[in-house]
Amino acid sequence: MKDKIIYFSGTGNTKLLAEKLGELLNVEAHSIEEKIDWMSYLTNSRRLIILYPVYFSVPPMILREFFDHYAVALENKEMICIVSQMCYSGDGARVVEDFLPSSAKLIDTHHINMPNNIPNIPFVPLATSGGIRRKVSRGLRKLTKIADGIKKENFKRRHTSKFSILLGQSQRNGGLKSEKSKKSSVRVNDDCISCGLCVRICPTNNFVMENKAVPLGECTLCLRCENKCPAKAITVIIDRPVKRVYPGPGQSVRR
After folding, report:
1. What residue spans of 152-248 are helical by DSSP H?
2. Domain span holding position 23
3. d(Cα 115, Cα 177) in Å, to the nearest integer?
4. Residue 67 in contact with residue 100, Cβ under 8 Å?
5. 222 vs 163, 174, 219, CA distance in Å?
6. CB 240 within 8 A of CB 249
């Protein structure tokens, strides 16, 4: 059996890391959104490498639900966790073990800084196209070093100090409550052009199309719809006008 990679990515940062890591290690990398035989894929793995973007210093809801659904296949597995983050998340990779079966063993953890993908945070503007490229380049260089360590089986649980856990907990304390309320707070304004893109790309099927897109209260806060909407008509976490969107790693900023 070989190592295998599973990941969730909202706007492309983690997808880029997962696919690049798959190339570096010569192992399969699959998004949890794919329709494959997950029970077989997970069971027939020597070791699992999990990648996800940190939301409130926890894995996204959609990934936590995935862990619950396939808990039997995750039992007694060795795990490596790599998270993408805007700047810091405390113990954002370590915390994944809180959502895995108790028999699973987390042996290696890493944090990689990637570009901000929240388009309308006050005082935290999106990077320019050049800024995105530079941050992505640094992230990929770190990923190459991580891959070298995995090949050599130089494993270490990083960001597990009391201070890191405290930083992570400080985000989770209010974040998990906010997560519940934000799940149903997606807004679609009258600029919606009824193109149906959000319906097609939402990982949780949170939209139906009536006269315009209508959210159903099942948002996982990945921001894919907000950043992909051609009319900039959708807001997810913050109800402020969207002037610029995050295009994903390696793309030019769209105004």
Report:
1. 162-182, 197-201, 224-228
2. 4-176
3. 25
4. yes
5. 27, 18, 8
6. no
